[in-house]
Design goal:
Blueprint: E1 8-11, H1 17-33, H2 46-54, E2 58-63, E3 66-74, E4 93-101, H3 110-124, E5 129-135, H4 139-147, E6 151-157, E7 166-172
Parallel strand pairs: 4-5
Antiparallel strand pairs: 1-2, 2-3, 3-4, 5-7, 6-7
Length: 174
């Protein structure tokens, strides 16, 4: 899938942090408007995003100087992932964190495009598998990951003080 030439994806720079945080705040507000309590205004935390930018793990999709989407890709698995019954336990996984599409750009295929970007990135960097977690109360994100070939693993995670579970997904890269 190719995107319009008006989009640019690149590694985030420190000066992008305010734009990334604006995207997270807009996404949080939009989700909460629909009763999706996936994130709050403490998470994602600017300090965490800052550190991930420094490590080169954050990517931004820019359009006309505005961050319209972002994703973090690294090897950091949450401690709770140890309790998940993954389909491919021995595979070297890349982890998707904090994928977000600004509400003003939703419906343009950016979520699907970011999933494809993560798959390409994983293959280029020698990963055998991709893992992520998705809030069970967010039907759109779960539908996206399933449509992109991610399989639900056995087990649940609970993040950010939520009583509603996060599903865990993985995609094996043959």
């Amino acid at each position: 899938m190719t995107l319009s030439k008006s989009y640019e994806i690149r590694p985030a720079q420190i000066e992008d942090l305010p734009l990334i945080m604006e995207t997270f705040i807009a996404c949080t507000s939009e989700m909460r408007k629909f009763g999706i309590m996936q994130w709050d205004y403490q998470y994602p935390a600017p300090q965490t995003v800052f550190k991930d930018i420094q490590k080169g793990n954050v990517f931004v999709v820019m359009r006309a100087g505005r961050c319209v989407a972002t994703v973090t890709l690294d090897e950091q698995q949450d401690e709770q992932y140890k309790k998940i019954n993954w389909h491919h336990k021995d595979a070297r996984p890349l982890i998707i964190h904090r994928m977000a599409v600004h509400p003003l750009a939703q419906g343009e295929g950016l979520g699907k495009w970011l999933c494809e970007f993560a798959v390409d990135y994983a293959r280029l960097n020698g990963y055998e598998n991709i893992r992520l977690d998705a809030y069970s109360g967010n039907p759109a994100s779960n539908k996206l990951y399933q449509s992109m070939g991610f399989e639900k693993a056995e087990g649940l995670c609970y993040f950010h003080g939520n009583n509603i579970a996060f599903y865990c997904y993985e995609k094996h890269l043959a």
